[in-house]
Amino acid sequence: MENKKIKILAIDDNRDNLITLKAIISEVIPQSVVYAEESGQRGIESARKNNPDVILLDIIMPVMDGYQVCKTLKADEQLSETPIIFLTALTGDKQSRILALEAGGEAFLAKPIDATELKAQILAMLKIKEAAAYKRNEKLRLEELVKKQTEELVNANIAALNLLEDLNAEIEIRKQSEEELKISKELLSETESIGKVGGWSFNIDTMEQKWTDEVYRIHEVEISSSPSVDAGINYYTNESRPIINKAVQRAIEHGENYDLELEIITAKGNTRAVHTIGKADLKNRRINGFFQDITEHKRAEEKLKLLNRAVEASSVAVEITDAEGNINYVNPFFTELTGYSYEEARGKNPRFLKSGNHPKEFYKDLWDNILSGKDWTGEFQNKKKNGELYWVKAVITPILNSNGKVANFVAIKEDITQSKKILQELIAAKLKAEESDQLKTSFLHNISHEIRTPLNSIVGFSEILTDPNLVPDVRRHFSDIIVKSSDQLLSIINDIISISTIEAGQEKLVLKNTNVNSKCKLIYEQFSVRAKNNNTTLRFDTPLADSDATILLDETKFMQILTNLLDNAFKYISQGHVYFGYNLKNDFLEFYVEDTGIGIHSDMHEEIFKRFRQVEVLDNRQYGGSGLGLSISKAYVELHGGEIWLKSEIGKGSVFYFTVPYKLEKQDSNSENQIVNEITLANNTPITVLIAEDEDFNFMLVEELLSVSNFNIIRVINGFEAVEICKTNKNIDLILMDIKMPLMDGYEATKQIKQFLPNLPIIAQTACSTEADKNKALTAGCDDFISKPFKQVQLISKIIEKTNKK
Ligand code: ADP
Q: pLDDT at residue 620 above 60?
């Protein structure tokens, strides 16, 4: 303060007063600077500008009086503490002083100014200001201190809080970890129990063992009890214990790990399959490992193995495809059935097995079904690798994944080819049986009618013939009727025998060179009388030269075919013509028999070839017949490798055709032609025939038949006599050997005679006319066979044929 100038502002509207004031101040306070201002406004400005230490302020001034100036200055923050000394005119003016104090002034000086008082006042004011400044500074300092301390306190608090928070967090974390640890422990235990796998650790030195919960559970031991090393080993079965002992030993001694599947018996006595893995940690002197209950797994594995074996060994084909239908697996039977190996089938769509015999809709239905998750069951035909077709009964099952989508298809296919075939055959056989049953019933009716008719005539007329008074002509007429009826009966019986042999599948061809021209001629001759009686023209045509007309045929059967057809032609004709003959067509001779008879409705063109089938129904039949002729003919034609058919129109007539293979044979010198000729010309050189026949009636019949020609006849009545006479009589040219005879039968006699006269022709004659009988006779050594009763032409032609060959 000593050095510093004291700045004093004096405000008074009276300049003289100001000068006086200035002079006094300079005098009493030499170290001062005085700013003098003549108005309140200017005084305020100066105060703001110079920041005086003391202000001397006059009260009465124009525009702005001293009170106003004082108020303005005190309201100014910068100047509010600057001491203001009012300069009053009147010393005792109390009112002015109150106003001055209210306005904020600090002191008063009465005019005229006393220098000493002024100085004292100013200095006092300065002191007050100084004290105020100090006070203010002190306050500020204190405030600052308080603020600083508060801040420090706050900071300390914050730090403490943070610390607390950290602490809490740490506590929380610890809590959490404890919780997590608990959870993980539980989780581990649960996981172990689900996976049925536990862990264990074994201290090599202390032999102390640690088990996790699951290891206890697998052993069915209380979790709290601590296991001893022995106990662990002791649970193993007698078979497994030595294995685990050895493994543990090697782990301890050589640090070798082990991985074994063994068996234990639990504390509760249950046997369990276990998987134990041991890892030796010799550095830490431990063996650590896993222990797993694989009982279920083993069982499943066994089951799977069993299933697999079942599928592999199964006798049904199993195919497994993916969702697109491409094959993933086929079992060995699939290969056996289809011929395709697993490698060939893998990755392919099973459509490569398609036979092409099912329509598209069939497969569409199949796919619609299985794609919608349903099973499909059905039968279809497939094709093997070798092209062969086969039938299967299939069950196709879609296998869905956990999302319910089709993941695979399993097809199980049973080969039903054989059973289907059998079933079809059975059905056909059943139908056939039913049909033939029906036919047989109608046949029986029919046949009894057919048999009864001639039989009635035979019985009836035979009785009449016994009347001694009969006129010879009538007698002859009745005899004729009896003969005709017998023929008719015989033909029916022959037909029945033939059809039985055909049905039994025993009918065989006996092929020999046959001249079809001469056969046609023979037939013509046989039927010409009938044609004449019938008023019908009979004609035949054989376009081949005789030399080209000899072919390989079963002569008897061929003759029967033609005879049957001509028989029918005459049976169903009332007038017109019957033409027959043949034409050479390719490698076949096509025979025909044409008539102008009643004709056959087209519905029946195939039917009439079936056994016992006749166009007429039984009740109104007017034509005789067994209904067997055409079926026998058909069977015989087919045996020859030919066909039989017809063309016909109702009311106009019918043409029957049949074919036989044209197999040209070399002309035989002993051809049928010649034989027929020889019969007609009759033989000049007598032929000696030995007739071995025990029945008198039969002998007489043969004797009668042979009487037309030049034959010498000798008779014996059994086989024995036959053999004996052959030994002595060297004139015998041929023997007609009956088979059934007393003492020695025909077979035996033939055998014996052939031993010493191998070239002597022997013709067997018997009532049994089956192919088997015939064969038996031929095996015994007979040269031919003729069934009783025989026709004259047949008998003579056979005798001539055989004796000529001799
Ligand atoms: P059937 O002994 O009855 O004549 P077939 O088997 O010979 O037996 O003939 C069967 C049927 O075919 C005959 O019953 C007849 O109805 C018919 N049939 C055969 N041949 C002729 C033909 N030439 N004209 C008309 N019908 C015929």
A: no
Q: Evaluate: CB of 330 within 6 angstroms of ligand 1.
A: no
Contacting residues for 221 by C-beta, under 8 A, at least 6 apart: 227, 266, 267
Tokens of residue 212, six digits:
């996790």
How far apart, in whole angstroms, are the C-alpha atoms of residue 515 and residue 549?
5
Of the candidates 294, 287, 231, the residue with the CA atom closest to the CA atom of residue 262: 294
- Which of these ranges, 90-99, 328-337, 481-490, 778-787, has the smallest mean pLDDT? 90-99
- What pLDDT digit, counting tens, does each position of 771-790 carry? 777 888 888 899 988 887 77
Residue 372 phi/psi, 5° resolution? Answer: -85, 10
Residues 418, 398 contacting (CB under 8 angstroms) = no
H-run or E-run covering 390: strand 389-400
Alpha helices in 256-326 (DSSP H): 295-313
Q: Enumerate residues 6+ apart whose C-beta is below 8 A from 7.
A: 32, 33, 35, 50, 51, 52, 53, 54
Q: Is 598 in the pocket of ligand 1 (CB under 6 A)?
A: yes
Q: Flag the least confident range among 88-97, 347-356, 479-488, 533-542.
A: 88-97
Tell whether ligand 1 has an atom less than 6 A from the beta carbon of residue 600: yes
Residues 526, 533 contacting (CB under 8 angstroms): no
Strands 711-716 and 687-692: parallel
Residue 643, SS3?
Answer: coil
Say which residues have a Cβ less than 8 Å from residue 458's Cβ, sequence separation at least 6.
482, 485, 486, 489
Residue whose CB lies within 8 A of the most ligand 1 atoms, among 568, 612, 613, for a mutation test: 568
Q: Does the Cβ of 492 fall within 6 Å of ligand 1? A: no
**Angle, vertex CA 768, rays to CA 711 and CA 553, nearest 5:** 75
Minimal CA–CA distance to 20: which of 36, 43, 42?
A: 36
| pLDDT tens for each residue of 213-224 | 888 889 888 876
Residue 334: closest CA among 349, 312, 351:
312
Q: Which of 464-473, 623-632, 731-740, 756-765 has the lowest mean pLDDT?
A: 623-632
CA distance 783 to 777: 8
* DSSP string for 319-335: EEEETTS-EEEE-HHHH
Question: Smallest Cα–Cα separation from 636: which of 659, 620, 605?
Answer: 659
pTM: 0.38
- What are 203's two structure tokens? 């201290």
From 630, 648, 654, the mutation candidate for ligand 1 (largest count of ligand atoms within 8 A of CB) is: 630
Q: How many CB atoms lie within 10 A of CB 696?
A: 10
SS3 292: strand
The conformation of residue 4, written as its DSSP 8-state character, comes to S
**DSSP annotation of 13:** S
Q: Are 692 and 749 in contact (CB under 8 A)?
A: yes
Task: Report whether residue 625 contacts ligand 1, using a CB cutoff of 6 Å.
Answer: yes
**C-alpha span between 213 and 184 (Å, rounded):** 13
CA of 741 to the centre of ligand 1 (A): 40
